[in-house]
Amino acid sequence: MQPSPGSRPARTAGGTHRLLTGGLLVAGLAAALGVLAVVAAASGQLSIPAPEVASGFLRGLGIDLGPAASHPRADATLWSVRFPRVAMAMVVGAALAVAGALMQGAFGNPLAEPSVVGVSAGAAVGAAAAIVFGLTAFGAWTSVVCAFVAGIITTTAVYLFSRSNGRTEVVTLVLTGIAVNAVAGAALALLMFLGDTQAREEIVFWQLGSLNGSRWEHVLVVAPLALLGLVLAARLARPLDLLALGERPARHLGVNVERLRVFSILLVGLLTAAAVSFCGIVAFVGLVVPHLVRMIAGPGHRLLLPASALGGAVCLLAADLLARTAVNYAELPLGMVTAAVGGPFFFWLLHRTRRTAGGWG
User: Fold this and answer.
1) Residue 197 burial by CB count (10 A; 0-12/13-18/19+): exposed, middle or buried?
2) pLDDT digits (tens, 9 = 90+) for 301-349
3) In sequence order, what are the residues at sequence separation of 6 or more whose Cβ sits closer than 8 angstroms to the Cβ of residue 165?
4) pTM for this one?
5) DSSP 13-77
6) For residues 6-45, b (16+ Cβ closer than 10 Å) or e, as one string?
7) Are the C-beta atoms of 151 and 273 separated by less than 8 Å?
8) Which of the listed residues 72, 117, 132, 147 has the most CB atoms within 10 Å of its CB?
9) Which of 330, 328, 314, 329 is nearest to 86 (CA)?
10) How many H-runs (helices) and E-runs (strands) does the chain carry?
């Protein structure tokens, strides 16, 4: 049967329109990220004009260009406090958003997010155990290392428990994740019961999430792990696109579906554990950002993954800016800000999915 005369031009026009939309989206997100980074670095108890932020950044690189600092502590504040925090927000946001895109793509479910595999809950237990029992094997980094290792272990456990007959089903993975999250919650409650007042305050602070205290040495640990995860995730773009056609067509086209899902889960664990180890639990970034990008630019992962990384960086940088400037001389928990936005979005997404799918049963 010959295709209709207008079918090829229509497909070409549709592909061109989607490519243009994707290009505009990436360019817009990159521009928004640059502007927001300058605003975030300029904002705080010590207000620094945007031109001085740019010139201070250049001076730190050895380039004396632009206006001089109007405050004697401006450059020190930028390079020791604000720039590391801005960089950490970008890295963590990008890692969480790409982890969410991988989860949604690997399991074909727009409601999937990194916390489904228990990595955040496991990391919380690891950090809490280090705090309560006073572990010092890695010095000041002990709670961070424990959080990272526990997050990876929890992710692996969820995968192994959900695997049956050589396959991992989506429903089984989600239910296993719920069970493991419940066990981790019980363990966290026990640790809070065993800890003293100071330990409980540290655990609660860690659970609420914060970028306060971010330093360059922290960024230099998280950034390489996140970059490795992002590079490996980009290599999964084509297999994930084929998997979107369905498991059987993907297998016929040469995709090892089970191996793809295993690798995706491991990458989700790496990205999320690296992100939450330093800043605590930050909810909903991995759910909201990839879904919004997919609604705008379509489901193709070659565009979805980099756009999600940029969108996640923009989202978390904006949330952190709001958290530390909304109340004078105080800082709101970062996890509370992201949950306040992500919670209503999740309800809307549930309603939309149910309406378009014609019900859950």
Assistant:
1) exposed
2) 999 999 999 999 999 999 999 999 988 888 889 988 998 888 888 788 7
3) none
4) 0.87
5) HHHHHHHHHHHHHHHHHHHHHHHHHHHHHH-SSS---HHHHHHHHHHHTT---SPPPSSTTHHHH
6) eeeeeeeeeeeeeeeebeebbeebeebbeebbbbbbbbbe
7) yes
8) 117
9) 314
10) 15, 2
